[in-house]
């Protein structure tokens, strides 16, 4: 590809000075604990005792930092950068220090010799700066440790930020991961009218830790076809070890110019087609009178999807570092991945080579006597908030606004007593979200993400307010697809999660709704986000973000035709292992509690909220007011469901958490009331499972005295729990009552079967719970033996009935609390 | 693309009869509980009361089943098929029943009206057949529930199976997932000389549950570029609702013929270049004398990687089903995803439409009066073991051979007392694996998979026996890359896991070595594999498979420069939630125990073994003989490390599991011996953590009496555990001693820091353990108060030392058991 040569020699020299400064600062972070400006000859005592860190990708990232700076100034861009490559922190830290943002955020990082030395010393030191981009790194929204999510983060950042350009640097190591491979398709969800742009830079430096990378070793035409197939129009810039740096600067500057121009043209065209945001931008001639809300954006036909530009930048790994060490090639091989020169304190030749390497950047030209960068080194740096380390989007809490959350009353289920009616909880939530979508129609700072399951999860009411965003072909037979929709569906949990992370990290709000079992697909991403939030709490200048919200539905207990593979409640366990400051798990038992929990979750900051709720019809246990009180407490006694006298202690506690366990528990309570009327039964429902933990271990933990008041200290507690039963044991093992606690839950006894057969298989059914009560409550009358046998008999009857009829026993299928409670 | 018309009219009619039979059988599985052959008019009582199942992808999968059959016969192929699309089971079950394999495997599936009806009745019924391919489905190695892994499974199946062709049907829904998007690159790891072939069939039926699919809606040239970019040479076959079926049969048959011919040519060429398997196939002119073992396969230069063929098959979703229902389009829309006609028992028009639909396949021509398929319907079916439901590879246990596992003695660390020397456990294991690679040089039924970390994980000794397999360009500067290597590295845990699954599911052995924290990336895949194995146990004809083995190393405690993002020991928790029949977790404390554990794991069948072991130098605690005994018991008292009298009970138990916890525990024991010599301390080490569980909950669980004999019933137990401490509580909460158990472990207090600072931050350091002992042991002398203060003082000293020096306290860094034990 021919690129116009746009750079003057003077500007080239300025860019090169900035880049050399970044390279110098990057290399010094690995090595120096003194003599930061090399004002004296380098000696062993200037070198850190432990050499830790990564050089390999730093020069390439520095080059991108430099040229993105130039593009921001030249094109007056509002731009941020997502730094994908692992261990890229030295270059990004160098950039933030050099442009002054680091010093403005952290007092110890002043733009002088002292701040420079502090940076060098803290890098890869105990408790110091990690070698991948992390919350400590100004301008970053990306943990560079795990690899795979940069591109999805970048698109999440770009959604609903029409003025923003997000540069996404994708390393060729990261590019081998599945999540990254899928995320290239994100362009088919980017609305050029309302969203910003993503400019991916595929940075091929050729090597991972110890191997070449795939994409660097396939023929260039094959790579080009791949990227065109993903929907991009690639611009290739290649630097080899012997390519003059000026040549690379010219080629890369021109490529950025071409890319920015193409992006602007695509946006101009798309925005001209869309006269204003929102429904009024709908195609003239649509027929609103037939279905005014359902599909206001429909625009069947081929997409006007731009072929977005993409840069393929090939630079040698460890470029400008030592070409050879001890006779072995290092630059442009995997050997430059970490510290190219080792044993520098002990080996005078290595020390000499290090000094030669560092001086090759001519630090004297880059920094004055006090260590302040020279004008030449700073010429390409943008002003103020346009600096990459100062872009507010990369510290999204600065832009965060409270959501205009709807009143719950109009959406709440009207109840008349407990368990008299049934509703689908997620459908009720969907109505509330619909209003939220309407309320954010112009702000566009709330989105719903999911893997092709919004309708399946009964959240399709939201399509009344906004369709699914879709930039590919739309057919006349399609429903609820539109160019500007804020529900995004793709059959990749990784993309959904990555987009949502990018969206909230840049100061917006959202929800990821998924089949419960498949949340595990993003377990690792969720864990990394928790770590990001936990680490951010220790970074003073990071502002609180909207929480990351999961709605897990289509849960383990109701997989009537999907069976065993769709049954896994263990995401809760995974989350509950993580930092208690960050993690929250809610198990609302009905529609109104789900509304309250969702309302709460959308107001929280800097947490990861996991809400598990069913989509199938579920008894309405609580009025909205009761639900509010119950959710505020997080757990509580449902006095109306038990049989104890006020003020006394019960004989037994039936506890439950989750919608199906709650139903079985209430049915068991009804059976006990009928068959063992003298037994004082207390029913406890738990919404916020962290309440079970000691206060010392989780901020939501209930103080012991309050816990004991609810659960007693020594009465039998039969606990029906939504997930793996041992989680309840692990949360409560320090409680007085723990020795009397008996938990039922999902224990991997799954199949394609009926709802009630699922609870029977896992010993969590109402009859089993009654048997548990009888087995564990001392001093029951002889009558109890007969009751126990009757329960056993129903279970036996169930087994033959379900085999014969394929349905549940009529007495179970038709059961309701209202019928039993007279 | 032009394709030759190779089919005669007679053969076309035969193929169409087979396909119609599959469609008929698929549709009937959703609806019928009687009148299987439609010998009488369809009535409401013939219809199942609950209509569950999925029709959408069945006709397309049936078409592929038919044509793969034809290709097997025509080209004398040894072929199997991996069925990727979700909910594809009806078509595959139909195929297996029709060809007779199902009836041979399961008595109730005879190839007559009775067997047919049994299939219809059991489908999607409680405890019956799921609607995605599962272990119940003959010929399948693929759980069709989660989506994303078919292509990786197919490549795993093809590795080292040079005669096998694996057809991989990839649904366009599945194709949106990350793991699938990455797995297209698997061709760059497929050795055409020693591996079989994978023929992907990208099946675009246009829709997921409720949405169009991405790949079906991008322009065809864009899709074609994408697939070429992935390294394939696509053949496109497109059927629209009005395309005559004969035309599609001709086009698809021709496409299969072209694909098979191209595969054979590529294999012939590659195999001609490689005169025989193994090192002797090395490039003439290599210089073995310089380094005979290290790189015997090196063949620098561009790859002779074939452009493998790939079929893009477009068929309408729900093809041949009802075009419209109640005036709404169903065929060729997402509405055909599940049951196209609902309420059939109640709605006479739907019943009529169902009958018309089913009769459109002309069942009278396909089945005789007894329900046996006619010759016409069976004409394309291969013989015997070539039938897709009978291929032995798809029931891999039939092909499994015992591994020639090396003797451990030559690889074991020679010890002279306890803790006198140090070794890197994974490096020691690597030597054993090297011999295993040598011993399987010709059999080629063992492989090591990992994400670019074999060297980083100190397993690079294996390269002495076999290089990393690589079919892309090789440079002169590369090391340990070769065309025929059996170590496969790609920076995608999903691909590593998927390949290994496919490899073991087809009857071979392997190991996946990964950074511990990043095992979570494949948590969901691991869970699905456990479910597959658990379900397989209930399928009589499934033969035991080699276990799926994980080596998790570079673990949480030693992430000196990677820090917080690389610290997550929770994969153990995830695995321990799953079916106890299947899951095993081992925490060998040193090199010799790791050898024993690995040897054991490689001998087991049908389990998932998670082995967590460090790569850093670690004290050699046990001789090989001691390690053997210790591993056989799974846990045990280390008498040499404690101070109790024989036969008595100790005052306190120090327990540990994992290499770092063991070191801290032994250091604590040494401190106690020195400072509180009167205290009777018992040291217990746990290798197999399921031993902690009750026997009733895990087959490895230790009976209570034995457990109590080791841990006591009431003495304080201070347990230093590798992972999240609460796991130990959850495993032991039923044990007598549980109330006295105090567990230390990783509690998310991570950073970039020194090894000892990590244990201090998480309160698992030796000094803290001694303090725990003092705090929890009643009746200690006043001297203990002083000792406690001394411990506290060292911890304080540590904090300032590490901040100042960036290294650990000398007394910790230089500590050894041998020095303390005189």
UniProtKB/TrEMBL annotation, chains A, B:
<keyword id="KW-0456">Lyase</keyword>
<comment type="similarity">
    <text>Belongs to the XFP family.</text>
</comment>
<dbReference type="Pfam" id="PF03894">
    <property type="entry name" value="XFP"/>
</dbReference>
<dbReference type="InterPro" id="IPR023962">
    <property type="entry name" value="Phosphoketolase"/>
</dbReference>
<feature type="region of interest" description="Disordered">
    <location>
        <begin position="268"/>
        <end position="307"/>
    </location>
</feature>
<dbReference type="InterPro" id="IPR018969">
    <property type="entry name" value="Xul5P/Fru6P_PKetolase_C"/>
</dbReference>
<feature type="domain" description="Xylulose 5-phosphate/Fructose 6-phosphate phosphoketolase N-terminal">
    <location>
        <begin position="7"/>
        <end position="276"/>
    </location>
</feature>
<dbReference type="InterPro" id="IPR019790">
    <property type="entry name" value="Xul5P/Fru6P_PKetolase_CS"/>
</dbReference>
<feature type="domain" description="Xylulose 5-phosphate/Fructose 6-phosphate phosphoketolase C-terminal">
    <location>
        <begin position="615"/>
        <end position="817"/>
    </location>
</feature>
<feature type="compositionally biased region" description="Low complexity">
    <location>
        <begin position="277"/>
        <end position="288"/>
    </location>
</feature>
<dbReference type="InterPro" id="IPR029061">
    <property type="entry name" value="THDP-binding"/>
</dbReference>
<dbReference type="InterPro" id="IPR019789">
    <property type="entry name" value="Xul5P/Fru6P_PKetolase_ThDP_BS"/>
</dbReference>
<dbReference type="InterPro" id="IPR005593">
    <property type="entry name" value="Xul5P/Fru6P_PKetolase"/>
</dbReference>
<dbReference type="InterPro" id="IPR018970">
    <property type="entry name" value="Xul5P/Fru6P_PKetolase_N"/>
</dbReference>
<feature type="domain" description="Xylulose 5-phosphate/Fructose 6-phosphate phosphoketolase N-terminal">
    <location>
        <begin position="303"/>
        <end position="398"/>
    </location>
</feature>
<dbReference type="InterPro" id="IPR009014">
    <property type="entry name" value="Transketo_C/PFOR_II"/>
</dbReference>
<dbReference type="Pfam" id="PF09364">
    <property type="entry name" value="XFP_N"/>
</dbReference>
<protein>
    <recommendedName>
        <fullName>Probable phosphoketolase</fullName>
        <ecNumber>4.1.2.-</ecNumber>
    </recommendedName>
</protein>
<dbReference type="Pfam" id="PF09363">
    <property type="entry name" value="XFP_C"/>
</dbReference>
<keyword id="KW-0786">Thiamine pyrophosphate</keyword>
